[in-house]
């Protein structure tokens, strides 16, 4: 039971990361803080989930990483959306919409 | 996608250090960025850094999580387990050696038997597309002179073969070959070397084409060769070509003298083609069917032209899409039409409706060896599997004991956060590693073992049709078996070892384990004892059966007798020349110093056999004779004294029994009993079951019953007639039989001293009579009889070995568990002794524990052994399935071994010094 819930969160996290990166390339902390800010603090992404997710997505080719200089002139690893990532985001967004609409219908019925 | 993941994983594996450094840098930047952010929002610099670090948590654990995401991490942990396992194996040499020897024996025994099963049961003939090859008919009959109405047909006459070949549309090709493989005398036309005996087979023109094989040299038999007027040709087997002619290519195309007839050797069959059957004496010559009349010398009355004589096997290649079941039904209907059309209505019409043909897969050849040995091989497979199970139980026990010793370490690893799956994985990896190494050793053992097995199984054979070489399927079997074995004996200890309660394990001390820790071990010992008693009892039964067979009264003497087979027809003699020749041979042999008597015979017990006939009795109507198979033999004057069969009444044959004199016969007790019970057989008349032949022979003597067939076969009544008296019969089949039996097939000598030492003298005498008379299978009669029980001997020897192995393993298991328990209870025993228990009490306590397990094992095992004995009963000779001596003996032996195995630890327990034991607490 517990495993199922974490699976769901994991899948959602990847979608949120894709969405975040759709606007611009970002480093790890940037992604975490952006998700937290936009969700008004509902989602707090801790590094223990964030980095494995990034590694997984990089491995599957949805995002790619580059070392770049930060605004403070330090080196950081920036993540960019690839073409397949962009497509995956579109698919997942649509699928998410379908699922939440369905869940909403069930809850309202 | 998959490929990319794989490549990414590979990259990750090789760049592990670099990746680790990158991650550290990335995490550090994360913490820095987070701290800056927090400071910007008003936290103090120190608090911001601390808070950011807390958020990050342990960088190491995040790193592990990231690394664990890829497949390479699983591969890496397997690699670590393998490494760890190998180290464990090296670090505990005592444990490892015991485990490896046990495994090598268990897996080796199974692999050896599988080598045999594979060679005999599973291997297909070296022919093209064996799966489309079907045999028309089933079973092995090749003596059916009259064909008869067999029910399920196995062999056919030539006209019916032609009929099927020309009319059946379901087959691409239909070929035929003779069921009999007669021996031929072969000599190179241009060579001075003597003749060589080779077995041959008559085959149809399309035989090789149907099997789909190509010549190694020259060409094989073609349609043009199988015609009445065709030039005589012959094809030779590869092995014979190598053995006799050293693979000389120039022989192909040359002329061979075969039974005095010049024939062109047109080609050599491919290497590895050992004919259409698995036999210890496969054909080495293939001759077109059309040559049969020329060799068998019957002209127009020969088998080839006769109908109703079933002497041919028929095989065919089914067309693609043909359904065997339909073809089979079609063939049966067709056979019944054919029989009716042939006018075979002397038998009831209903009987014809019962005639049918079974289509059997032909790819594995025709082999009585296969069907004979099937039961034996199943038994041996079961036995070797039991040995392996006992070995598994032993290893599981060893691992359990070691797991208990490692309880502390396991508990520590669990409480430090190692996952149970990972711990189970590493224990399993170790057991699988052990069993793989043991399996590799076992394959070597199996190689030696299967060679030994084949030598026992084919004692006395001129050619061993199965190979003991390990092949790919055998190696695959060994690998699979090793993996399964490793998992079986590793899984229970792995599970139990890692499900200990960490807190209890960590509390330490030797008093922690209670009875529960050793219960699985005790169960395993009980199982071992039960399985061992089954194996021991089976070994006892099979061995006793063999000894009964070897001691069975066969009705003749084997000691001091020399036996050889020979072929007068192949040497070119006509029936009319034979009586004088036989007399000369007998006289010259009996003149040899040390030879007590000599004789020739058409058949000999336990060697060449059997012709069965229907008979008539003079003065009685045909319907009076019950439908009894009667054995028939033609023998020389000194036959009975030479093989040591006593005359009970009357006389044996003499030189006065000539063709002109009254024809005489000798019968055995069973004959006299069956047909003249209560009366005197001597003076009565008998003959073959043909009108007007009831008075052909007068019975002049009665001999003891002699076992011609296996000792287990039911004794048939038999009669004997001399070579010197023949009868003329009208039906061709009878006449052919009469002429055929005039040729003696065996020669027997009764000698003083070792029979084998007379071989040279015997060969010299025959060579001086005629150099074309070659002798085969010259052996002492004892050896010949011993070879008859090859299979029984193999079973007995192997089950003995299995029984001993089981006993040894079970004893080691019992010893191990008892010793382990004594070591574990050292403190407790010390307390008991301090409280007044004497050494005898301690010994009794330990022994009672050990024997408790053995007795439970016996209670389970003895009924199982009885069931096994029952299943075996039909393979045993004069052994009752409830043999109390065997079962009791097995129990006694097991108890004795248990006593020794338990006594050693019990003595150690008794020698515990209470003070020492308590101080160690």
Summarize the structure in short:
By secondary structure, chain A is of the alpha+beta class. Chain A has four helices and three strands, in the order αβααββα. In chain A, a hairpin with a 5-residue loop joins β2 and β3.
Q: If you had to describe this structure to a student in words, what would you say it looks like?
A:
The complex is a heterodimer of chains A (109) and B (921). Chain A has 109 residues and is an alpha+beta fold. Chain A has 4 helices and 3 strands. In chain A, strands 1-3-2 form a 3-stranded antiparallel sheet. Chain A is globular and about 55 Å long. Helix content of chain B is 52%, strand content 13%. In chain B, the strands form 5 sheets. In chain B, strands 16, 17, 18, 19, 20, 21, 22 and 23 form an 8-stranded mixed sheet that branches. In chain B, strands 4-5-10-7-9-8 form a 6-stranded mixed beta barrel. In chain B, strand 4 and strand 5 form a beta hairpin. The relative contact order of chain B is 0.10.
Number of strands of chain A: 3
Helix content of chain A: 55-70%
Number of strands of chain B: 25
Extract low-pLDDT stretches of chain A.
Answer: 1-8
Number of helices of chain B: 29
Mean pLDDT of chain B: 83
List key phrases describing it:
heterodimer; A: 109 residues; alpha+beta; three-stranded antiparallel sheet; 4 helices; 3 strands; B: alpha+beta; 25 strands
Question: Would you spell out the secondary-structure blueprint of this structure?
Answer:
The complex is a heterodimer of chains A (109) and B (921).
Chain A: H1 2-23, E1 26-27, H2 28-38, H3 47-59, E2 63-69, E3 75-81, H4 83-108
Antiparallel strand pairs in A: 1-3, 2-3
Chain B: H1 2-14, H2 16-40, H3 45-56, H4 59-68, H5 71-91, H6 93-122, E1 133-136, E2 152-153, H7 158-167, E3 171-178, E4 183-188, E5 196-203, H8 207-211, E6 217-218, E7 233-236, H9 238-245, E8 255-258, E9 261-268, E10 285-288, H10 292-296, E11 312-318, H11 324-341, H12 349-353, E12 356-357, E13 359-361, H13 368-405, H14 407-415, H15 420-457, H16 472-498, H17 502-507, H18 515-551, E14 561-566, H19 578-590, E15 595-601, E16 611-613, E17 615-617, E18 630-635, H20 639-643, E19 647-650, E20 664-668, H21 669-675, E21 685-688, E22 697-703, E23 718-722, H22 732-742, E24 746-751, H23 759-769, E25 775-780, H24 781-788, H25 790-824, H26 826-834, H27 839-872, H28 884-910, H29 914-919
Parallel strand pairs in B: 2-12, 5-10, 7-9, 18-23, 20-22
Antiparallel strand pairs in B: 1-11, 1-13, 3-11, 4-5, 4-8, 6-9, 7-10, 8-9, 14-24, 14-25, 15-24, 16-18, 17-21, 19-22, 20-23, 21-22
Helix pairs in contact in B: 1-5, 2-3, 5-15, 6-13, 6-15, 6-16, 13-16, 13-18, 13-25, 15-16, 18-25, 18-27, 18-28, 25-26, 25-28, 27-28
């Amino acid at each position: 039971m517990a495993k199922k819930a974490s699976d769901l969160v994991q899948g959602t996290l990847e979608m949120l990361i894709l969405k975040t990166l759709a606007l611009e390339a970002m480093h790890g902390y940037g992604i975490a803080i952006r998700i937290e800010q936009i969700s008004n603090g509902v989602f707090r992404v801790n590094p223990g989930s964030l980095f494995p997710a990034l590694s997984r997505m990089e491995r599957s080719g949805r995002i790619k990483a580059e070392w770049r200089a930060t605004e403070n002139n330090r080196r950081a690893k920036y993540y960019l959306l690839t073409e397949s990532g962009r497509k995956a985001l579109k698919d997942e967004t649509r699928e998410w919409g379908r699922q939440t609409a369905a869940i909403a219908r069930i809850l309202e019925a | 996608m998959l490929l990319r993941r794989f490549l990414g994983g590979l990259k990750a594996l090789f760049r592990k250090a670099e990746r680790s450094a990158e991650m550290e840098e990335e995490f550090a930047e994360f913490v820095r960025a987070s701290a800056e952010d927090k400071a910007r929002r008003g936290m103090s610099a120190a608090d911001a850094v601390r808070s950011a670090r807390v958020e990050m948590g342990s960088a190491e654990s995040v790193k592990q999580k990231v690394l664990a995401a890829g497949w390479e991490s699983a591969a890496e942990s397997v690699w670590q387990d393998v490494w760890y396992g190998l180290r464990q194996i090296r670090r505990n040499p005592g444990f490892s050696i015991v485990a490896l020897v046990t495994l090598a024996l268990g897996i080796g025994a199974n692999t050896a038997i599988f080598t045999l099963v594979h060679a005999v049961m599973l291997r297909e003939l070296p022919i093209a597309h064996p799966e489309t090859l079907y045999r028309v008919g089933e079973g092995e009959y090749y003596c059916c002179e009259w064909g008869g109405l067999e029910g399920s047909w196995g062999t056919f006459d030539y006209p019916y073969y032609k009929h099927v070949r020309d009319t059946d549309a379901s087959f691409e090709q239909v070929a035929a070959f003779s069921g009999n493989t007669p021996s031929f005398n072969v000599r190179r036309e241009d060579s001075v070397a003597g003749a060589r005996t080779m077995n041959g087979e008559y085959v149809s023109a399309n035989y090789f084409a149907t099997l789909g094989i190509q010549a190694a040299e020259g060409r094989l038999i073609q349609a043009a060769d199988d015609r009445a007027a065709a030039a005589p040709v012959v094809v030779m087997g590869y092995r014979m070509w190598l053995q006799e002619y050293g693979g000389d290519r120039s022989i192909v195309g040359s002329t061979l003298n075969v039974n005095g007839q010049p024939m062109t050797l047109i080609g050599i069959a491919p290497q590895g083609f050992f004919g259409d059957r698995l036999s210890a004496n496969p054909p080495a010559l293939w001759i077109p069917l059309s040559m049969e009349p020329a060799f068998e010398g019957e002209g127009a009355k020969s088998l080839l032209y006769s109908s109703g004589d079933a002497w041919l096997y028929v095989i065919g290649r089914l067309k693609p899409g043909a359904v065997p079941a339909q073809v089979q039904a079609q063939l049966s209907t067709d056979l019944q039409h054919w029989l009716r059309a042939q006018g075979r209505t002397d038998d009831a019409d209903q009987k014809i409706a019962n005639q049918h043909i079974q289509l059997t897969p032909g790819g594995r050849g025709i082999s009585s060896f296969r069907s004979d040995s099937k039961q034996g091989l199943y038994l041996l497979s079961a036995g070797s599997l039991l040995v392996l199970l006992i070995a598994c139980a032993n290893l599981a026990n060893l691992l359990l004991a070691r797991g208990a010793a490692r309880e502390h370490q396991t508990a520590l690893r669990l409480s430090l956060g190692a996952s149970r799956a990972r711990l189970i994985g590493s224990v399993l990896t170790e057991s699988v590693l052990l069993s793989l190494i043991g399996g590799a050793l076992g394959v070597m053992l199996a190689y030696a073992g299967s060679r030994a097995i084949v030598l026992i199984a084919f004692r006395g054979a001129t050619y061993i049709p199965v190979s003991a070489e390990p092949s790919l399927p055998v190696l695959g079997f060994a690998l699979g078996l090793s993996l399964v074995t490793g998992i079986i004996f590793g899984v229970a200890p792995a599970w139990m070892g890692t499900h200990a309660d960490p807190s209890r394990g960590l509390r330490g001390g030797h008093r922690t384990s209670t009875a529960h820790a050793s219960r699985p071990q005790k169960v395993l010992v009980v199982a071992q004892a039960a399985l061992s008693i089954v194996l021991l009892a089976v070994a006892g039964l099979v061995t006793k059966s063999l000894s009964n067979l070897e001691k069975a009264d066969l009705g003749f003497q084997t000691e001091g007798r020399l036996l050889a087979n020979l072929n007068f027809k192949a040497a070119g003699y006509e029936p009319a020349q034979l009586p004088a020749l036989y007399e000369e041979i007998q006289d010259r042999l009996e003149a040899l110093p040390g030879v007590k008597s000599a004789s020739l015979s058409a058949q000999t017990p336990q060697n060449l056999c059997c012709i069965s006939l229907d008979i008539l009795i003079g003065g009685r109507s045909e319907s009076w004779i019950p439908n009894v198979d009667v054995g028939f033999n033609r023998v020389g004057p000194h036959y009975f004294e030479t093989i040591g069969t006593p005359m009970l009444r009357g006389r044996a044959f003499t030189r006065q029994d000539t063709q002109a004199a009254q024809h005489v016969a000798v019968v055995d007790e069973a004959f006299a009993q069956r047909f003249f019970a209560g009366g005197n057989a001597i003076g009565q008349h008998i003959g073959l079951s043909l009108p007007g032949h009831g008075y052909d022979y007068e019975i002049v003597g009665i001999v003891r019953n002699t076992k011609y067939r296996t000792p287990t076969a039911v004794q048939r009544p038999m009669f004997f007639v001399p070579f010197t008296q023949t009868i003329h019969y009208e039906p061709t089949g009878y006449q052919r039989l009469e002429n055929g039996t005039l040729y003696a097939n065996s020669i027997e000598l009764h000698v003083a001293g070792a029979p084998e030492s007379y071989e040279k003298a015997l060969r010299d005498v025959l060579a001086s009579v005629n150099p074309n008379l070659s002798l085969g299978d010259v052996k002492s009669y004892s050896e010949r009889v011993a070879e008859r029980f090859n299979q029984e001997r193999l079973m007995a020897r192997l089950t003995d070995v299995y029984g001993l192995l089981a006993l040894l393993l079970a004893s080691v298991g019992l010893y191990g568990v008892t010793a382990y328990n004594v070591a574990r209870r050292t403190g407790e025993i010390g307390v008991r002794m301090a409280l007044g228990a004497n050494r005898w009490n301690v010994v009794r306590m330990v022994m009672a524990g050990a024997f408790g397990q053995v007795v439970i094992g016996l209670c389970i095992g003895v009924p199982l052994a009885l069931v096994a004995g029952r299943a075996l009963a039909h393979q045993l000779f004069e052994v009752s399935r409830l043999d109390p001596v065997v079962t009791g003996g097995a129990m006694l032996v097991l108890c004795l071994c248990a006593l020794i195995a338990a006594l050693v630890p019990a003595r150690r327990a008794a020698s515990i010094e209470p003070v020492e034991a308590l101080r160690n607490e």
